[in-house]
Predict the structure.
Amino acid sequence: MDLVIKAADLRAAGVPAYVIDLKCRPGGPWQRILPGVLLLSASPPTRAQRLRAALAYAGPKAVVTGVDALHAHGLRSLSPPPRVHLLQPATARRACPEHVLLERTTRPPRVVLRSGLPLADPARAALDAARHDPDPLRQHHLLATAIRSGLCTVTTLTEELAAGSRRGTATARAALRLLYPLLR
């Protein structure tokens, strides 16, 4: 159990709002980790709890992408960024809290369910992670690691690049051009 719940779900289950407020006071047994989302523990949230909280905050059509999605697909060698990266429909208007990167998209990814989490497919997740990393060497390493692990191929990454927006993809395109000759 991840101990993450929406405050609205607690109220719907009969927990009065004043009890929620009381338990979430400083030094209390619960904490608010995102607007309207609680952690039923006083301990610092784990990455998995932050991920579940971000999904609860963003709503039912949100999808995990980037490094967190790659981790859930089995690629554990990459260190997670400070913010959880989610995709949401272009029509959604949720604000971005401090620990969440909510990216609106008109082209939702193919969703893969793992451990109850809606994940972007590996190629989309790898490119989304690369697009948001300012370091070209880390982008190259990320894409090369995703390919070497067998999660995706140069072809699937190239097809994903061709289908999506060109914004922020110049370095990823250059990295794939460098990787392609090495993988033949």
Observations:
- The mean pLDDT is 91.
- The longest strand covers residues 84-89.
